[in-house]
TrEMBL record:
Organism taxonomic ancestry: Bacteria, Pseudomonadati, Bacteroidota, Flavobacteriia, Flavobacteriales
SUPFAM superfamilies registered for this protein in UniProt: Zn-dependent exopeptidases (SSF53187)
Organism expressing this protein natively: Flagellimonas ochracea
Full protein name: N-formylglutamate amidohydrolase
Listed Gene3D superfamilies: Zn-dependent exopeptidases (3.40.630.40)
Matching Pfam families: FGase
Amino acid sequence: MHKLSIEEIISWIAAEKCFEAVSDDYSFSLKIDAYVPFVCGAVHDGHQFRKSLWDNCLHSEYERWYEEDPNTMEMVQSHPIVIAGRDSRFEYDLNRPPETAIFDTAWGKKLWRSPLSDVEKEQSLQKHANFFKVTHALMTKLESLYPKVIVFDMHSYNWKRWDREVPVWNLGTTNVDNDRFGSLIEHWRSQLETIQLPNGLKTTSKINDTFFGNGYFLKYITQNFKNSLVLATEISKIYCDEHSGVIYPEVVRAVEEQLKTLIPRMVVEFEKAKV
């Protein structure tokens, strides 16, 4: 893996180089094994939290982990193009626009002992901006090579906090063109429902049942790239114990192995569709 500046990453994309890199501040990673018409993203996979914020943060490491999306990059790591956040969303949230990307409170609890300095905020917002500069360069390149591009925007959510039965998979679609892409969205939902999980876990999948696809990553790509479909794909945290932080690697691996088949199959459906 290379450590590259933002300018180097963008220039390598422009030159259609294949590479695996981390940004020079370690805030995100990008792997391109081939320039294909689909991207896997895991913007909330990161857990890093820079040291200058530690003493000022009122949330514990576990509380931060609880609201992150651990292992979502691992679930799609075998695919040709993977972009993933390495920093915690508590430092800055890549799935929110810049003006709300830095939390004052998080999930009902004050986040900082004292207000962040302008210097700290600017450092976080620069990382946010850099991620989207690279996202823009990547999507621009792919749309120049292909008539349309599909993005698998991977997330997870805490199912035990709900007081009703919730699906293993949820697709959030309120910010994509459902008239244009509705049948493809339903196809992806039905494919996710075929995933077989260990430990007697039953797979269910629904659309807009728990979350609605309001994230900035989806909105940014959808608004700037008219021939791209972003599928906000959330798995409930059945692959771990939300309350202890223990990961169930056999469940993570089962999801990863089956997505190796289902994602390319979905790409073929997307390429065939007249949208």
